[in-house]
Amino acid sequence: MVPNRAVASRASFPSRLLTTWLVAGFLLSLVVMASLLYGAGPVSPGDAFAALLGNGPDNAHFVVSELRGPRTMIGLVTGLALGLAGALLQSMTRNPLAEPGLLGVSAGSGFAVALAILFGASNATLTTFVAQLGALAGCALVIAATRVQGLGNDPVRLILAGATLSGLLLALTSMLMLMDQRAADEIRFWITGSIAGKPLTLLSSTLPAIAVGLLIIAMVARPLAAMALGEKAAVGLGHHPGRIRFLITLSVALLVGSATALAGPLIFVGLVVPFIARAFAGPDIRKTLWLCLPIGPAVVLGADVLSRLIAAPSELPLGVVTALIGAPVLLAIVRAGRMPSL
Amino acid sequence: MNLTETATLAADNITLAHRKFTVAKNLSVTLPPGKVTAIVGPNGCGKSTLLNGLARIHAPDTGTVLLDGKDIHVLPSKEVARKLALLPQDNTAPEGLTVADLVRFGRQPHQGWMKQWSRKDQQAFDHAVTAADVIELQDRALDTLSGGQRQRAWIAMAVAQETPLLLLDEPTSALDLGHQIEVFELIRQLAAQGKTVAMVVHDLASACRYADHMVAMKAGKVIMEGPPGEIVSPELVHTLYGVHCDLLEDPATGSPLLVNMRRERSDHARCQ
């Protein structure tokens, strides 16, 4: 009598999730191919393809393996980190607009790095660490803000608070740029957001932090899903909301700090990626996180390929392209009449 | 299903405070096993605070809450969640969450990091959706259900937890009469299957009708405790709510019925 229906309802959804995941994974592989074949260096797609197969001219070989290859990998990791961080923040603050870029987490990270550059930092490991510390501070401020009575329940007010924090940090960063011309050039290039010309050593310096961030997600995904039922209900199911919030904050800081160290403070990625993922995954954060894995890299890398093609032969900064894509999505969410409740 | 496992829950001289403001002082309450206990009292008397204290949501400043004789705040939270299920008042669900999704959450205390959905989880799930009569609603999103159906789905989640104890904070507060009865009858059924239930009820009449045991609170203190038929009197009602009333016996169930409720005693004289 009963069990059949119950089993049927269980089986149908994961298979749909798998299909979506495979489609997203396929799209991602197309974007990766495009990233290797187009832009960044004077090599035609045909030559680049030949180089991938081990033939082709030497310069094509160089461009693909030394320029586009690392750039592609950095794009993949940045997208992965920002997509997951956005999904985590949105779930924890129960706010579909919560996004590291908009809430000042990236700006905190950016300010910290600008400060480090001013004091002469150039070591990749140091930059990564400083970016993570800045992200942690920004993240802690955001969480503190959501705990203020009323603010956490109102998505738009939280974003306003985040915009204020971002604005302040941006102003402080600009002030730093007035203090030293050499640092100013470096900061200006970095703060627009770009994954072009970044060394692979930078990537390897962020990988441990990203691994820890992912491990934390694997540990707290289930309790985080339960938090969506309300804090008391989560306690009732045997979870510790305070502990979960702390771990999520840590994970977001590690992920956003790493992404910022790699690509500069990119905004809107953490908004757009979970938004797309949720449309297919439904209300469960665990499914959303799974889908963010292929979608995040695809969005960042796709935006990066566009940044090379729009104004070819010169390039637009990646941060400009993500903003051009993200701003309309934000407007669409806000204009949707009522915000989806998470 | 008859629960073979039982558990006892008691508050031993607990004092509960919000910030520095003491809400409930020196409370000692023991839930009678296999019975439905209703916590009643006027608004702000501390009844929800007591329930939250019993459910380890609210840690007492002094005294201890004892689950099977052990301090509930010392026991691992997950272990507690296998003995005690809670239905809070301010629960929320993300948009689009289905009844089946919700009920599955009830199995979390039985799952581990590597222990995914097991056969036993599925059995508990099937039992819960049957017991709470939400089989037909499984694939519906919670936000599309009526208040009574939604509350039954939440109770199904708590039932899936397979705990001997079930605590509910105002399970019928936002429901109309039909839905209230739907939920209370479900709660009675669960008690008949061996669960020990405690619930905060703001409607004294429902508490008289559906509870075996009543804890009457006022201004943070338990002023009377016992079966409704023994402790409910016009004096108690007046002490709790400041209203006068007469009592009848429900011809169908024998439980006390409050009638002729009014604010002024003078009305009472006129009626006689």
Can you describe this structure?
Chain A is mainly alpha-helical and 342 residues long. Chain A has one domain: ABC transporter involved in vitamin B12 uptake, BtuC (Orthogonal Bundle), CATH 1.10.3470. Helix content of chain A is 79%, strand content 0%. In chain A, helix 3 (58-93) runs antiparallel to helix 11 (241-263), helix 6 (124-147) packs antiparallel against helix 7 and helix 7 (155-179) runs antiparallel to helix 8. The radius of gyration of chain A is 20 Å and the shape is globular. By secondary structure, chain B is of the alpha/beta class. Helices cover 33% and strands 26% of the residues of chain B. In chain B, the strands form three sheets. Chain B has a six-stranded mixed sheet with strand order 6-7-8-3-9-10, with helices on both faces. Chain B has a four-stranded antiparallel sheet with strand order 2-1-4-5, covered by helices on one side. A two-stranded antiparallel sheet of chain B has the order 11-12. In chain B, helix 6 (177-192) links the parallel strand 7 and strand 8. The longest helix of chain B is centred in the last third of the chain and has 16 residues, at 177-192. The relative contact order of chain B is 0.17. The model of chain B is unreliable at 268-272 (pLDDT under 50). The chains are: A mainly alpha (342), B alpha/beta (272). Chain A binds chain B through residues 2-3, 5-7, 9-10, 94, 219, 222-223, 225-226, 228-230, 232-233, 235-240, 282-284, 340-342, and chain B through 52, 55-57, 76-82, 84-88, 90-98, 100-102, 105-106, 108-109, 111, 113, 117, 122, 125-126, 129-130, 135, 138-139, 158, 161.
